[in-house]
Write the structure tokens for this entry.
Amino acid sequence: QVQVEESGGGLVQPGGSLRLSCVASGRDSSNYVVAWFRQAPGKDREFVGLIRWSGGTDLPDSVKGQFTISRDNAKNTVYLQMNSLVPEDTAVYYCATGPWASRDSGYYHYWGLGTQVTVSS
């Protein structure tokens, strides 16, 4: 079994930055892909980016240049660095992990409970 936990959410002003952390623990989790998704009220869950165990990343054009993903394998931690935040980035951000890299949330077996990010003045 794999446990996933996000942290680092909060309230930030427009134009500000925030770094989310995701810790995945459990058997074989260190080799897994870690992905970030977000879901705003009334909207579908949206892919935000992923990172492979090798460090390779995949981010959608909508956040490329604004968000970056990195990982510290020694700490089993993945980071989502978010810059130049705007109110439209307000959402619950979820971390998910699994053995395959995909932008489809259905491919991920293990999920955290999410962390709220609110961008507002």
